[in-house]
């Protein structure tokens, strides 16, 4: 695909009459619109205005119930400047190849990046790593998601209850089940490739209508974009085939939830993986840099949890006996732990990596990756020590400190005055994100659920 510059943009878009521009909100939802090409070309250098409410409302477009700088009683709802990122240019195969660009938010007065813009949060984290340490983090993410033979209309009509899956049974890694929806299955892989989102793997998983897609390993900033675009793209491609795709963390009580496992490693200026090449640590096959990064991640994990598990439902997934971690634990090639360490003899030194198994598919990829990168950077910079030794079995992992059981508990840990989240992400971002999660909890607290109706209406 032709690389866009200010000089050739009119030529590249010569046969287009419209352009789609999209932005990322606090929940990782893509928001955007179609611009006339003339309006787009005028906005390329100067940007265009977007209301601050885009960073001050929830997934259902409700303004946060707690006063903040982006919405509510203390906000003027002024415009932020949306700056178009030419490097994100791609065409959407399932939308007649309409061109698409991502944007970043900037302050219209100072011109500085808006601190709470998710793309800016990740960019800042990676840039600091590169500038101060000469190292670049690389990531891969595995997303699980359920697919239903539903539309939003049919789902609303049945009260979001008993959605019909597109496949029957658990069928992990099935060769048969994908053939029942073959056009959807292969279009997903092929169209995403054309959309500059290559999948390393794509298969059925352990659950009715459950699939897993592994987004190919890339530099962290690019990975944030690809993962956020992937979630919306998967939903759109599913819609084209009469399917509703859901990245909700735990839609079924009796089946495992949907994970968003993050794999991460770091390369130096020579392109060497510092997790596999460098000064060895006291732990066999782990370099000192890998141990420090891991230590920073583990020590930060309790207070960055709201970025990895951002919804009320997230914590229904993080329960025992469902292949999801519940403690601050780590182990060599152990899927029972929060962090799985992949080193020789299981991996070559060049491919040594950490797999963070806590995040759900409902995470905002930009913010989750930023939190992991920041904690790892802090761990290396301050040479953090591991809080405890490795665990291998589920029983050993269970003896480690328990992660928060609810969004309220996790948000309190993030909000604490001395939290690692505040150290690595800064007060301005943490203060706003805490407000967004407290709002989410408030909405839940005020809700009357079907559980309550079934349990109490007749008998109490």
UniProtKB/TrEMBL annotation:
GO biological process terms on file: biogenic amine metabolic process; glutamine biosynthetic process
Molecular function as annotated in GO: ATP binding; glutamine synthetase activity
Matching Pfam families: Gln-synt_C
SMART domains registered for this protein in UniProt: Gln-synt_C
Protein origin, superkingdom: Eukaryota
Keyword tags: ATP-binding, Ligase, Nucleotide-binding
UniProt domain GS catalytic: residue ranges: 118-460
Family classification: Belongs to the glutamine synthetase family.
Record-given protein name: Glutamine synthetase
Organism: Rhizopus delemar
């Amino acid at each position: 695909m032709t690389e866009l510059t200010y000089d050739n943009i009119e030529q590249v878009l010569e046969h287009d009459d419209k352009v789609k521009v999209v932005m990322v909100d606090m929940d990782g939802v893509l928001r955007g619109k179609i611009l006339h090409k003339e309006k787009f070309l005028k906005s390329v250098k100067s940007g265009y205005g977007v209301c601050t409410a885009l960073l001050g409302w929830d997934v259902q477009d409700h303004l946060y119930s707690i006063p903040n700088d982006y919405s509510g009683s203390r906000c003027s709802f002024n415009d932020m400047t949306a700056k178009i990122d030419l490097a994100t240019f791609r065409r959407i195969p399932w939308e007649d190849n309409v061109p698409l660009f991502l944007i970043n938010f900037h302050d219209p007065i100072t011109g500085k990046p808006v601190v709470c813009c998710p793309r800016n949060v990740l960019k800042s984290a990676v840039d600091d790593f590169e500038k101060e340490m000469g190292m670049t983090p690389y990531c891969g993410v595995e997303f699980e998601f359920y697919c239903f033979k539903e539309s939003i209309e049919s789902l609303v009509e049945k009260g979001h209850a008993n959605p019909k899956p597109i496949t029957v049974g658990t069928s992990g890694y099935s060769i048969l089940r994908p053939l029942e929806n073959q056009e959807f299955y292969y279009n997903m892989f092929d169209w995403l490739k054309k959309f500059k989102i290559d999948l390393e793997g794509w298969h059925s998983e352990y659950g009715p209508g459950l699939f897993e897609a592994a987004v190919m390993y890339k530099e962290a900033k690019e990975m944030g974009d690809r993962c956020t675009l992937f979630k919306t793209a998967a939903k759109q491609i599913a819609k084209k085939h009469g399917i509703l795709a859901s990245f909700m963390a735990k839609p079924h009580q009796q089946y495992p939830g949907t994970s968003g496992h993050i794999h991460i490693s770091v390369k130096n200026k020579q392109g060497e993986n510092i997790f596999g090449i460098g000064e060895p640590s006291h732990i066999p096959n782990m370099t000192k840099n890998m141990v420090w990064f891991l230590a920073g991640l583990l020590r930060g994990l309790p207070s960055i949890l709201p970025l990895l598990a951002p919804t009320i439902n997230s914590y229904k997934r993080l329960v025992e006996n469902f292949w999801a971690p519940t403690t601050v634990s780590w182990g060599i090639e152990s899927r029972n732990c929060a962090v799985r360490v992949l080193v020789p003899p299981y991996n070559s030194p060049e491919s040594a990596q950490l797999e963070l198994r806590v995040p759900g598919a409902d995470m905002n990829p930009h913010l989750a990756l930023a939190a992991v990168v920041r904690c790892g950077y802090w761990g290396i910079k301050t040479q953090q020590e591991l809080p405890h030794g490795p665990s291998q079995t589920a029983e050993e992992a269970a003896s480690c400190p328990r992660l928060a059981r609810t969004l309220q508990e996790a948000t309190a840990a993030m909000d604490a005055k001395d939290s690692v989240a505040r150290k690595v992400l800064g007060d301005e971002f943490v203060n706003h994100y805490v407000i967004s999660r407290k709002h989410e909890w408030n909405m839940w607290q005020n809700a009357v659920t079907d559980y309550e109706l079934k349990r109490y209406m007749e008998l109490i």
